[in-house]
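Narrative of activities, Objective 1.

The group set out to show that a structural description can be obtained from nothing but a protein's sequence at a throughput compatible with the screening campaign. Below is one input-output pair from the validation batch, recorded exactly as produced.
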Amino acid sequence: MSIRQPRYSKDEAAQRGEAIYDLDILPQVEANHRGKYVAIDIETGSWEMDADEIIAGDRLVDRIPDAQTWMTRIGYGYIRRFGAGRSRRTA
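Output recorded for this entry:
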């Protein structure tokens, strides 16, 4: 099994991924899939969506073994949130 290597800088990968997502994918998924993850091959524009980011990424790599994957979360500006934030309180 070979190890996939990135062929793009982080900035170029992000630019390509965001462009594909904004133009091709977002109009199809925005209304009904908030919170799901989208794995995008930034070379082909192929993508997979799932509530689990690992499953979305694995499905994409199953279809395109050498995929240059970029991941986003529908309706969020981030994949995961780190650090302190609002705590949920229950009454």
